[in-house]
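User: Sequence recovery, please. Input:
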């Protein structure tokens, strides 16, 4: 866009100066006429004041509306309508909010976010695999400990069974010895009685 400096005379003969931003001098003259349509103003001179000037928001809105209508005339399934989907609304937001967003920027941000999520996912997978390997190692260690404890328990049970059997045998032997002792003691008593009888009879 260009900025044009316009010097003009008013109805009362005084001079005035105004600046208009337009794509060319013809459009600048047209905008001047629209701006001063309620009075009689005559352009004395017009000169290019600057180039690469930013368009006004209204100019951007007008241009956006023209483009929107042109695309709408092509139909909703046209290539342009498909390519511009969402772009018109984004452009209106840029104008209203002084933003500089684009669909390409959004796509790049989405791709960056997707890449970040993929990196996090890969990291999570690594953490999971490491945790799974560690858990597997701990499980194997615990299985070995359980097997060892089971073997010790079996050995203790066998020892207890053997000790129980020995106790039963010793108890049986002790009972037999007690019986034999009691029998011997009874026999001794009988022999003493017979000896006593013989001694008495001999007198």
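Assistant: Recovered sequence (203 residues):
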């Amino acid at each position: 866009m260009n900025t044009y400096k316009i010097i003009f005379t008013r109805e009362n003969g005084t001079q005035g100066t105004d600046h208009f931003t337009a794509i060319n001098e013809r459009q600048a003259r047209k905008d001047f006429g629209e701006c001063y349509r309620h009075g009689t103003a005559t352009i004395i001179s017009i000169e290019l004041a600057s180039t690469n000037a930013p368009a006004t928001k209204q100019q951007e809105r007008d241009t956006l509306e023209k483009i929107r209508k042109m695309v709408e005339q092509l139909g909703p399934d046209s290539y342009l309508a498909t390519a511009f989907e969402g772009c018109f609304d984004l452009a209106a937001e840029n104008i209203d909010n002084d933003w500089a967003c684009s669909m390409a920027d959004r796509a790049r941000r989405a791709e960056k976010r997707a890449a970040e999520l993929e990196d996090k996912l890969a990291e999570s997978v690594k953490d999971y695999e490491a945790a799974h390997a560690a858990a597997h190692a701990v499980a194997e260690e615990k299985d070995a400990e359980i097997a060892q404890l089971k073997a010790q328990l079996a050995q203790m049970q066998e020892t207890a069974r053997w000790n129980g059997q020995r106790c039963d045998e010793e108890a049986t032997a002790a009972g037999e010895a007690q019986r034999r002792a009691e029998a011997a003691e009874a026999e001794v008593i009988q022999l003493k009685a017979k000896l006593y009888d013989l001694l008495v009879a001999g007198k």
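The chain has five helices and three strands.
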